[in-house]
């Protein structure tokens, strides 16, 4: 039976380690325990921090040996095509991939170990190591490679360092120097993986789901979930109030895209990848899109599917010179969205501001190029509508021409945000103010009246968020006692629980009324200013018409 190339590669250390005895022996043989003891002497030998660092390094070396062994087995299985008595021979590049994977896993694990000791190594530059290629020698066994790396680490740590200070005692500096070596070595190995014959094999590894000690890897690098959430707000779909149909459509689209078959390059379903929302400011369009993005990444992570979610900002593509904006748009969608080796979602807020009407006489060439680029995205001529990606976009108003609207709004939703009393109660009591809930009214009837007042005032979700910020400010209007600064985390929570100031129903209603009055005044002022501008324009037009009539009726100076 052929090997399942979609099966995740799970590398979990067994209890007691994989080959920890040899890992400890390699540390001793490299002289690291003696070296740390001499550079960071304690009353009974190495300091506690140095001993803990040695333990962390032994665990890291052991995990690197395990990673190389497990990946070696996967390569043999795939090269043999499944169950077979034939034992394939790995090519030198395969063995270099194993070596690189062993080194980066060891370096990553040691970095985590010393970070827990407060000894994170900060490095810059690259490692100029003549013997680096020798460390990736295809003929070296993983055990021999680990020994060579540790000997180099000890030699690196012996290099002269700045004198110890109260903020950086000798044992801390010694541990950091070993950590710096592994960080520099890791960077050099990653560079080799990107720029040599290893690159195709690293890309093949990137396409697989790999977890080492529970941590996902993308090729030779730990996949940082936070990096995939760059630009996303920390909001969940359970926190979205109102917009139920829009939320459910986004979640369904996210699940359908996650089902894309990466090996066959197709999705079992034929999807419309664009979700479009129209709604006034403050109706929750942005929060909903970010919630769908977080759901998408969580859903994919739980199932081992490589995924990314991007927030498209104007600064990502807009430029001051002609045609560059459209080129950046094309690059963004081709490389960052569809070129990502996994499934991808994207959110483009306020898309109406990016595209002027083609009927406008003031339409610049750059805007024409932008329209052509976005039409290509939505028509499927730039990116195949293959179910590998999806795009959420929204607008406050439809200021685009019919051709643009027809392409973007193929799956349109009108988003209004919270509108009913129960919406406002859930938004305020259950989401925005849940962290200070003990200091709020506990009577359900009081909250029902608060919700009714918010609905009557016609507030948006953004207005309510501002009011809740003011309410929280009243609850937290206190000074910290001196005991707070000397207390541990548990005691601090106990102290804070008694410091908040209760807020009653009348105060919350007053905050809502104040926001509504401010909004009303702002709208009236904006309306007056718009009226004055229109009047001024009409007066100028009338004056121009009178002047034209007078000039047309005046005798020509050349007539006599």
Verbal overview:
The protein is of the alpha/beta class. It folds into three domains: 9-222, no CATH class; 227-414, P-loop containing nucleotide triphosphate hydrolases (Rossmann fold, 3-Layer(aba) Sandwich), CATH 3.40.50.300; 421-518. It is 55% helix and 8% strand. It contains 20 helices and eleven strands. The chain has helices at 20-30, 32-39, 48-80, 92-115, 132-135, 142-157, 170-195, 199-206, 225-228, 244-258, 285-302, 324-338, 365-379, 402-408, 421-432, 444-457, 461-475, 482-486, 489-497, 505-553, and strands at residues 9-11, 41-42, 45-46, 210-212, 215-218, 221-222, 274-278, 307-311, 343-348, 389-395, 412-414. Strands 8-9-10-7-11 form a five-stranded parallel sheet, with helices on both faces. A four-stranded mixed sheet has the order 1-4-5-6, covered by helices on one side. The longest helix has 49 residues, at 505-553. It is globular and about 100 Å long. The relative contact order is 0.07.
Order of the strands making up the biggest sheet = 8-9-10-7-11
Spans of at least 5 consecutive residues whose pLDDT stays below 50 are: 320-324
Q: Radius of gyration from the CA trace?
A: 32 Å
What share of the residues does DSSP label as strand, in percent?
5-15%
Number of helices: 20
Mean pLDDT score: 80
Q: What is the SS-derived class?
A: alpha/beta
Number of strands: 11
């Amino acid at each position: 039976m052929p090997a399942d190339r979609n099966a995740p590669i799970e590398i979990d250390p067994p209890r007691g380690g994989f080959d920890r005895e040899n890992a400890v022996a390699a540390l001793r043989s490299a002289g690291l325990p003696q070296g740390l003891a001499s550079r960071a002497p304690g009353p009974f030998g190495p300091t506690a921090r140095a001993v803990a660092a040695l333990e962390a390094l032994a665990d890291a070396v052991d995990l690197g040996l395990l990673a190389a062994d497990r990946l070696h087995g996967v390569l043999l299985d795939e090269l043999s095509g499944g169950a077979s008595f034939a034992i394939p021979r790995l090519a030198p590049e395969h063995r270099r991939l194993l070596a690189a994977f062993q080194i980066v896993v060891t370096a990553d694990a040691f970095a985590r170990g010393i970070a827990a000791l407060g000894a994170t190594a900060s490095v810059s530059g690259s490692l100029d190591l003549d013997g680096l290629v020798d460390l990736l020698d295809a003929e070296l066994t993983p055990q021999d490679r680990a020994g060579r790396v540790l000997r180099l680490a000890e030699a690196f740590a012996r290099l002269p360092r700045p004198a110890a200070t109260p903020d950086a005692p000798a044992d801390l500096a010694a541990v950091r120097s070993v950590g710096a070596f592994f960080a520099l070595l890791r960077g050099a190995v990653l560079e080799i993986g990107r720029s040599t014959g290893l690159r195709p094999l690293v890309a093949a590894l990137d396409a697989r789901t790999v977890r080492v000690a529970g941590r996902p890897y993308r090729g030779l690098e730990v996949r940082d979930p936070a990096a995939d959430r760059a630009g996303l707000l920390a909001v969940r779909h359970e926190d979205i109030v109102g917009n139920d149909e829009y939320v459910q459509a986004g979640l369904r689209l996210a699940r359908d895209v996650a089902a894309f078959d990466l090996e066959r390059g197709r999705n079992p379903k034929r999807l419309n990848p664009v979700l479009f929302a129209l709604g006034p400011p403050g109706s929750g369009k942005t929060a909903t899109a970010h919630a769908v993005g977080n759901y998408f990444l969580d859903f994919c992570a739980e199932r081992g599917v490589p995924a990314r979610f991007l927030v498209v900002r104007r600064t990502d593509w807009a430029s001051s010179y002609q045609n560059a904006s459209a080129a950046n748009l094309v690059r963004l969608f081709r490389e960052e969205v569809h070129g990502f080796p996994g499934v991808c979602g994207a959110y483009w807020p306020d898309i109406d501001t990016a595209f002027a009407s083609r009927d406008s006489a003031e339409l610049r060439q750059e805007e024409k190029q932008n329209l052509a680029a976005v039409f290509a995205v939505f028509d499927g001529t730039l990116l195949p509508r293959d179910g590998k990606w999806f795009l959420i976009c929204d607008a406050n108003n439809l200021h685009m021409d019919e051709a643009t609207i027809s392409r973007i709004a193929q799956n349109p939703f009108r988003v209004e945000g919270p509108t009913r009393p129960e919406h406002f109660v859930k938004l305020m009591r259950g989401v925005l103010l849940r962290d200070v809930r003990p200091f709020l009214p506990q009577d359900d009837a009081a909250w029902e009246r608060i919700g009714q007042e918010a609905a009557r005032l016609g507030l948006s979700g953004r207005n309510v968020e501002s009011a809740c910020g003011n309410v929280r400010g009243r609850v937290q209007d206190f000074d910290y006692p001196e005991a707070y600064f000397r207390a541990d985390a548990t005691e601090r929570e106990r102290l804070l629980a008694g410091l908040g100031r209760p807020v009653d129903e009348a105060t919350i209603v007053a905050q809502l009324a104040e926001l509504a009055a401010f909004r009303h005044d702002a709208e009236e002022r904006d309306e007056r200013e718009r009226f004055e501008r229109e009047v001024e324009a009409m007066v100028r037009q009338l004056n121009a018409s009178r002047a034209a009539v007078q000039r047309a009726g005046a005798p020509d100076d050349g007539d006599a």
